[in-house]
Amino acid sequence: MTVQDRFGLELTTASGPAADDYVAAVDLILSANPGADARLERALAADPDFALGHVAQARLFQVQTRGAEAREAAAKARALAGRVTARERGHIETIALAVDGNGPASLQRLETHAAEYPRDALPLSLALGVFGLYGFSGRPDHHEAQFAFLENLAPHWAEDDWWFLTYLGWARIELGDIAAGAAEVERALAGNPRNAYAAHARAHGYYEAGDAENGAEFVAAWLPRYDRAGQLHCHISWHLALFEMARDQPERARALYDDAMRPGASLAPPFFTLFDAAAFLWRWQLYGHAAEIPAEWNELHDYATRHFPNAAIHFADIHAALAEAASGNADAALRRAEQCREREHAGKLPQGSVIPTLCAGTTAFARGDYGEAAELLERALPELARVGGSHAQRELFEDTYIQACLRAGLYDKAAARLNQRLARRPSRRDRNWLTAATPA
User: Fold this and answer.
1) What are the start and end residues of each CATH 1.25.40 domain in the chain?
2) 293 phi and psi angles, rounded to 5 deg
3) Mean pLDDT across the stretch 401-410?
4) Contact at 8 Å (CB) between 218 and 194?
5) What angle do CA 156, 159, 165 make, to 5 degrees?
6) What is the value of pTM for the model shown?
């Protein structure tokens, strides 16, 4: 029998119910909603030889940081690749390479695949978003590269497709075209109101516009209807916490940390929990909301040591270093920085020296050596985009640099950076910091 997915692409399976469950599971994956696990298990029970079902399971396990299970599922899909179409073989290999940890090869394979199959959404999704193959490529122009990739795909997508609009709008927002990007994301939400990636992108639009009031209102209305087990629940809660701090509601922000971000409360994979919790606690302290070092750093340090004991994933490393340094374990943070340098020298860190420099700079800040912190972070800032993630996430290191300059008496440098930021978007905090940078 011939069946197709939602994007009009043929699926090799002898089971109509398996195809239906697969299509539903893919939409759940593409919208960051729970439930795909059960749908894929049911699809593979109906058709154990459904190759795309296995590779979708591999992708889901990868997102959930279940590495061994992801590799096993990818191996099953590869073993079945001789029975499927050329499109499905390319689909399988693109995802399997990413599961292998070979991002450059996966991206190269994906770009070739996308040229022939521009509507094959699940492998396309590997390249996109905050932690996609472009974002983690180490390229300083990864935002521009992602947008160019999407523009090439756009003629092949309907103007109202909720999945494609989400990423096109988010890419525009990150490049500064906030109004156009936000409009596309709102159309994506109209097409699928439960699309967590679109809600996340809309939060970014408010953040980049400096609109904390409307951002908080939007997220506070959307989040209660999102399952706490959803992959982005912790992260979207983090966005709401940033809005609350920006509008001088620090206790609301802190309640969100306790409820949705801290280890034990967050149901997100460890990678997401680590960076959201570390980024929140660091900002909480940096913005003057903690009279003393929050005790929660020790809990997060233990969590980072358990899940990320050694340098391996650069975005986890820069946030694990925050937890190590802030909890008073500067030796561990500097050891992680040295491990990052070793990975760089071995050709395993495409982001380059910016990663160990950030680890060392934030460690200097945590121990109160603000002059050294300012010097190291100033060295890192021109390469900051190579870290990946979003502007909002990377801004933590810019904030730390500004505070290091202020505390070291480097007022001209702090003011120069603040004026650049205020030219881009309004910020009450930045205005206050600028006042502090121009002492009488």
Assistant:
1) 3-126, 269-440
2) -65, 125
3) 97
4) no
5) 90
6) 0.96
